[in-house]
Specification:
This protein is of the alpha+beta class. 25% of the residues lie in helices and 40% in strands. The longest helix is centred in the C-terminal third of the chain and has 22 residues.
Length: 155
Amino acid sequence: MRVLLKLVLECPPDAAWRAIRSPVVFRAVSSPFTTFASLEPGGFPESWPAGEHPVLGKAFGVVTLGEQIIDISFPERNDDVRVVIDSGRGVTGPLTAVTYWHHTMAVSPLPGGRTLYRDELKFEAGAITLVMWPVYWVFWQWRARQLRRLAPTWR
C-alpha cells in the first residue's frame, strides 16, 4: 500500500533538508499519536546519519508498540532534489506486523525561497494491510499539518 504527501513548505530548502534529518522534528511531527525514545547509547543524534537507529515506539506515549529500527540512507542524485529513505522494520511487538516499510522524503527548491516536500510511504502488513492503510493515511495527514506549522520556524 502507499500513502503520499506533496506540500509546499514556507522555508528554504536547506532548512527543510536539516529538518527532515532531525530526530527532534521526527518526534514533533509524530506526537501525540506516537512517541519515540532512542535506544542508542547517548540517545538521539542531532541529525540522523546513514545507518540503523533503534527506537522504542509508544501510542500516545502510553501503550508500547515495540522496538523499531529506523534505517536511514541518503541516495545520491544528479539534480537539486535531496532524499532521505527509511527502510526500517519493527523488531518487537505490534510493529512487527508491518513486513515491508519504505519511507521516502524529498525536498527541492521552489521560487521565492520555498520548498517542495514530497513524502511517500510504501508498506505491507499481510492480511491487515487494508486495515492499516487508513491508520497510516490519517497519521500522514497529521504529519502534513505539523510540517506546515513548523516549517516557518526552520530558518
